[in-house]
Request: fold
Amino acid sequence: MELRVGIVRDDRYFVHQTGVTHPERAARLKAVYRMLDKDFADGLIAIEPEPATLEQLELVHSPAYIRKLLRTPEREVTHLAQDTPAGTQTYVSAWLAVGGCIRAFHSLLSRRCDACVCLVRPPGHHATRKGAGGFCIFNNLGITATYAIERHGLQRILIIDWDIHHGNGLQELFYDRKEVFYLSTHYKGWYPYSGDWDEVGKGEGLGYTVNVPISKDVSDEELTSLYRKLLGPILRNYNPEMIMIAAGFDAHWRDPLGRTQVTENAFGVLTEMILELRDDVRRPPILMALEGGYDPAALAASVRQVLSALTFKGKKKPVNIPSNPRAVELAQKTVGIHKNFRVWTE
Ligand SMILES: [Zn+2]
Reply:
């Protein structure tokens, strides 16, 4: 089945200025947009972002933090966190990053699109209720998922976070809720140093947070094989109404912050795999939001693989992923930790 694929892009995401030496800079998105113009000039559904409302932001963030953001246009630079500067125009991008994801959510809800890719910045998965961090200002996906639950009654959202860093902000927001199932693979020796095996959720949310720390030399084979082993049972047993992907591409081998062995091909294979697995459940729509990815060329190449998988026309061949011994070990350990909660293990 051919998918209707939406795309959120807007040049106003460039006006969040972080300084020329900062890894999270506008050049990242410019490279991705150039690739879009060249390789995906038609066939994608353009979704126009609009700024999030204060009410939407307050679903997640504290009024004091939002007030702090509202004052950032008054100063040339405001350090929201040591690594997260805001310039005079940052609010424009930040409000639109959330708003773009919410517009994408609506286009999925109305079935105008089957999958949406939000190519936004600043990223979001490290932002917490009270503050910024790890280049993230508002928790774009966290707000969108909360909005989906609180305002539109969704009960089961699967968030897959394949950024090489742990999405501490996303985890924190949904740690005690079962309306969001949070699955993250990340290298644990780096920022934000959270996401250990034993972080599994609590209360109602016990068993609905799955953290899989991976090694720095993770390869395409290991990563794709690991997801193959985990996602099947998670999708079958959780049966999500929507899949959200915290799509960071900083696991790429060329990424200055990532430096693993992963190539852009892995992201294409992961996307194909998710499309295939979702056919076994009720084809939940997919909302993907850009997180990390700090080598502009590697980022553009990775997004190209994702979009190629989403827009593929013709008969799909079953995705062939050879079993990888290290992935088997990781998956077994994950199941071992989670089997007592009986949320998704079989
Ligand atoms: Zn990252």
